[in-house]
């Protein structure tokens, strides 16, 4: 039924799925959460406060990568 299955609907999973579909393959994208976007989403982690999950991940990068 599917030519390719992408596990995870984060930025990279959606990008991979788009390229695969553009090449003519039938693609299924599986995501365990109720939202897509992975770290690129904004969520209310503390009642009344919304955070970008990506901003936290960027803080984990080594300084030489950020430069």
Automatic annotation (TrEMBL):
Coiled coil (UniProt feature): none
Gene3D superfamilies: FAD/NAD(P)-binding domain
Any single Pfam family the record assigns to this protein: NAD_binding_8
Protein family: Belongs to the carotenoid/retinoid oxidoreductase family.
Descriptive protein name: FAD dependent oxidoreductase domain-containing protein
Organism for this UniProt entry: Nymphaea colorata (pocket water lily)
Source species taxonomy: Eukaryota, Viridiplantae, Streptophyta, Embryophyta, Tracheophyta
